[in-house]
Amino acid sequence: MFMTGIDREVLARAVDEVRRATGDPVIAAMVERSMAENLPAVAERLPDGTTFVLTGDIPAMWLRDSAAQLRPYLMLCGDDPDLQDVLIGVLHRQLDYIAIDPYANAFNREANGAGHTTDETEMSPWVWERKYEIDSLCYPIELAYRLWRITGRKDVVDQRFATAATAILDLWTVELDHEARSQYRFQRHDEAPTDTLVRDGRGRLTQPTGMSWSAFRPSDDATEHGFNVPGNMFASVVLGYLEVIAAEVLRDHLLAARAKELKAGIDDGIARHGTVDHPSLGRVYAYEVDGTGERLLMDDANMPSLLSIPMTGFARADDPTYLATRQLLLSPENPFYYSGSHASGIGSPHTPPSHIWPIALAVQGLTSTSAAERQRLLELLRDTTGGTGQMHESFHCDDPTVFTREWFSWANAMFCELALTHAGLAIPE
């Protein structure tokens, strides 16, 4: 059955806070609508007690998107036990999927063989798509940690978490040296080069860096250089969460030690390979590297991004290297930064040129230390829905009525998170 959503009184209190903070009844009404309608539209409770979450208008569940869509609900679930049940159900379904195939990024509701069945990779009837993305495995660990901290419930972390965590550690360890150790291959024979891996499905040649290799970005586009830096930053953070859960909940000190060791290696890899000396900005983070000296300076709208570093918890919003990187990303030096008559912001090679992502605008606000900047971006998001009152995947910087995807639940959730944060609410640590 599909969910009834969040408790009305809990939501009403939150919307009142948004109205007071923004002074804008339209923004408050958009938050109320999205928070009330988003989860019931995508979340289905299954007979086994887990929760299946559609990724917007696609009939499959992405590990990343299903967790990212829940972020504003984490802010409010402490006072809503029924909502907690739904969110814990999402986590448990994610963990079950990881046990089936940790390399897959998207799964079917049941083992019906739907999805990209012609891809050359080791498909399962449970798998919709098997594009391996390091961030897909980060989000369930973060969700488990947040739910455990927020609710204190013993049913958040169970044996299925231990099984999935072990599979994640095994995979990330193998992919420290993709060339020598990995059996993962992926090819898709269509006309989009970003949908497949070169070299017969192995991807471009890389050398070990201490970071863990990823075939695809959070955008589902193929990585150019193999080691996605913001993805590894997120992995470092969640490995810290995993160490705590393993030690304090599972009482598995071997698992905790493995997480700690892998985190240290990834951190060292980011420090040695993931930064670049910019001629005017100083030290900045690269988006991708390959271990041979090739580095890519850019950002993509999809999270985790370099812009979202403070959100994932790798560095503070006032960290000097982050601030220098942020300055680069929000400028024409980022090839996917667009500026037009209606908006300026970060887009993606996943969508047409000159298209800005509401997700990136929300992240820009959520990582800002300025309340005025958050207010400005909320108003910009309010005014660029193309008359629909809903967030889209992207919109044209000169004409918001030109957009991709009529309805994109992840973007709606990010708008709500920005508004709730501006109102003084936050995801509990």
From TrEMBL:
UniProt-recorded Gene Ontology molecular function terms: hydrolase activity
Record carries keyword Signal: no
Domain of life, per lineage: Bacteria
Name of the featured protein: Glycoside hydrolase family 125 protein
Keyword Zinc-finger included in the entry's annotation: no
Keyword list, A-Z: Hydrolase
SMART domains found in the cross-reference section: DUF1237 (SM01149)
UniProt xrefs under Gene3D superfamilies: 1.50.10.10
InterPro entries per the UniProt record, alphabetical: 6-hairpin_glycosidase_sf, 6hp_glycosidase-like_sf, GH125
